[in-house]
Every structure is written in C-alpha cells, then in structure tokens.
Amino acid sequence: MATLVLGGARSGKSAFAEGVLPREHATYVATARADPADAEWQARIAAHVARRPTGWRTVEPPDLPGFLDTARGPVIVDDVSTWLTGVMDDLGGWDGPLTDVHRECGRLVEAVTRSPAELVLVSAEVGLGVVPATRSGRLFRDQLGILNASIAERCAEVVLLVAGIPLRLR
C-alpha cells in the first residue's frame, strides 16, 4: 500500500508523512543532494535529519526505482520533487529531449506499484502557484505535475497539506 503526501513549500508535508510511519523503525529515503557550498541547504537537510526518530535508517540510493522494488517494511521517500530534479540534471532534461527523463519517471511509477514496502511518498504540489517565469521552471512544474498525477493513480491514499492542515483526497 502506498500513500502520497503533497504540499507546497513549508506546508508541513514532510513532518506529516513522518508521522504516518511507526516511530520505532522505518527506512527514510533521502533524495536531496547535499551541496557543501550552500550553507542554507545544508541547514535544511540537517533539520530533517534531526527530526527523524533514532530507530530509522536513512538511505540515499542512486537508483530509487530499483531500491523500491526490493524495499521491505515501512519506507518514506522524501521527496519525489528533489528526485526529479536530480534525474533532470543527470539526464540533461533541462535543455535536451525528455525521453530518458520520462523513462525514469515511468520506472518510478512502476516501482511504486510493485513495491512490497509500506510506502509514504512526499512530493511538492506545484500546480497551485503562478506560471513560472522561466522555461526551466515551467518544464519542471509540468514534469512534476505529470509525475505526481501518475503516482497518485497508484496510491491507496493521497493527502494534500495546506498551511499544516492535512486534506485527505483519497
């Protein structure tokens, strides 16, 4: 069974998703890439790490779909939007064709469907804001919106966080 937790920036989506899983054991899949030159980003990552229960294991798999295919027990993926950013970086999706990006997104959706783990996936809801002023912003918004919708189709539960308040969509 999978749950998708969506929300905007600072909506409380990660904290909510963490509260869905048992406090004594879970696997936390961190998708954000650390940048030692960005102190503010490092502080955000540290705040997420400090909030996790001590019994949780943190992993940063290079192949998220492959990891989900074999994961067991409760697993939180935080988050799909930073995973997509990395995929677009790695595969040249910002300036080139999106064929490989679409393939990786399809692999992720299928892995969510097949995974034997109890999954909780966190992702940014980017469809409620203004149209981004840049091509890359619009491209990312479109790709993440498509990916979120595809994952939501496969999840038993979908929750949207607005101002820290969970709204159960399914």
Characterize the largest beta sheet: strand count, sense, and whether it forms a barrel: 7 strands, mixed
The chain-level mean pLDDT equals: 93
Give the helix/strand class: alpha/beta
CATH topology: Rossmann fold
Q: In total, how many domains does the architecture comprise? A: 1
Distance between the termini: 13 Å
User: pLDDT below 50 for ≥5 consecutive residues: which ranges?
Assistant: none
Q: Any idea what the shape is?
A: globular
Order of helices and strands: EHEHEHEHHEHEE
Q: What does this 3D model show about the protein?
A:
With about 170 residues, the protein is an alpha/beta fold. Helices cover about 45% and strands about 20% of the residues. It has a single domain, classed as P-loop containing nucleotide triphosphate hydrolases (Rossmann fold). It has a 7-stranded mixed β-sheet with strand order 3-2-4-5-1-6-7, with helices on both faces. Helix 2 links the parallel strand 2 and strand 3. The radius of gyration is 15 Å and the shape is globular. The relative contact order is 0.23.
Keywords for this structure?
170 residues; 7 strands; 7-stranded mixed β-sheet; alpha/beta
How would you concisely characterize the structure shown here?
With 170 residues, the protein is an alpha/beta fold. The protein contains six helices and seven strands; from the N terminus they run βαβαβαβααβαββ.
SSE inventory with pairings:
Layout: E1 2-7, H1 13-20, E2 26-30, H2 39-51, E3 56-59, H3 64-70, E4 74-78, H4 80-90, H5 99-114, E5 118-124, H6 135-154, E6 157-162, E7 165-168
